[in-house]
Amino acid sequence: MGNATHKQTGPSPTVSGLSASTPSEGLFSTYQNGHFFCELTNTGAPLDPRIDLLRQRLNALPLDDLRTRAAQAEQELYNLGITFTVYSDKNAIDRILPFDLVPRILTQPEWRHVEAGVKQRVKALNMFLWDIYHDQNVLKDGIIPRELVVGNSNFCPAMMGLDVPGGTYIHIDGTDLVRDETGRFLVLEDNGRTPSGVSYVIENRHTTLRVMPDIASGIDLMPVDEYGMRLQNALSEVAPEGVDNPQVVLLSPGIYNSAYFEHVFLAREMGVPLVEGRDLVTENDRVYMRTTAGLRPVHSIYRRLNDDFLDPEAFDPSSMLGVPGLVQAYRKGNVTIANAIGTGVADDKAVYAYMPRIIQYYLSEEPILSNVETHICAEPEGLAYTLANLDKLVVKPVGESGGYGLLIGPHATKEELAEFSSKLKDDPSNYISQPVVQLSVCPTLCENGLENRHVDLRPFAVTGKDTWVLPGGLSRVALKRGSLVVNSSQGGGSKDTWVLAS
């Protein structure tokens, strides 16, 4: 496992296409990486023999065999009820997340680099959140514009002066990473509110081992099954002081939430009750769970609903999902909420642009994982650059997620560019822009065999007293040819992410 001071710059890959050891016949015989960095055919030197072994085993499979196994995997996922909800599609609300059987593989040096970078980032984010809700030195020292923080819709004045246990605001973090054409890992965005997708990491591994045991045989991989235990332990560690056996619960909005399967899955993995707001009550600034044996104290809440819905007395009075009096119990120190209220400031896409400075400010270190170059349209220079280069940039609304509301300039029509230009001029503070990163690709089973498809990576970090990063993470894949949008709501799928054990 890596440590937080590890500062390697990543592997030194080659980008010349298939390895000479790849057979000229079989599944890989027609595969082309398209001049992108490929996760299976471009590797650092020296070549890890286990990657070559994986390719040889996959290459030896008849295409029909792989298709049969893929169908078996899909049926298993369907039987398990592993679905997500697409609210924008009235004809197909519940869907199985498409799963591609060809795994993505990371070596130990690659993983140690990612792990160290994620730990560094989570530490800086927690220090940043503590500061902005206490002394606000980062604002006084001009490291980040004050209005970008206190004027942010996710900034929560109710959190001012509140001492959260261990200084941990982000207990569960999902950092979205991409690799560029050189194989370098870059941070695309931070997810410090209620990051989703970890259930797919674990189920993808189970499915791969059931459907392709011969492919994985003898390849020693870092396990992913301990996530639930790690999360339960971390939430117990940050429970209010003086509690010997903390009661942890997972608070869900309910069955109609897009990630409800994951809520059920994680509650089972953690061994804790899955509750909704109606199952909890506050008395004398303490939180209790309704049970058949009466009220039972609750000490840590892993919440999977947004701030606005948590407590109708503190936020939206029309919310039927939250718990009246929860925020008061929180402020009194009688319950821990993970992730903390108000963490959305830290994963705002405009604040993201300042993360290299934030890391340097709090840790006196250079970022282990660099940001993608980012232009803030709220700033005159950023807006001018974006408007002048709109056809070359990706433009994102700062408050959206899931791939909604963005513009990919090189793929946009003249009409779309003109329309987005007007949006930028009307509301520049709502947007940032970034260059188009030539995302890495991975061989993916398509209609005509193996083809390259773009992927990203979301490692999940769990923080209690210390930070632990789940080996690998969620590799999302853009299943449409040429698409750079990997989000499940936009037609993406996922892959099993293998981290070699040594």
Automatic annotation (TrEMBL):
InterPro entries: ATP-dep_Glu-Cys_Ligase-2 (IPR051680), CP_ATPgrasp_2 (IPR025841), UCP005522 (IPR016450). Coiled coil: none annotated. This is Circularly permuted ATP-grasp type 2 domain-containing protein. Residues 103-478 form the Circularly permuted ATP-grasp type domain. Residues 1-21 are annotated as: Disordered. The lineage of its organism: Bacteria, Pseudomonadati, Pseudomonadota, Alphaproteobacteria, Acetobacterales. It holds the Pfam family CP_ATPgrasp_2.
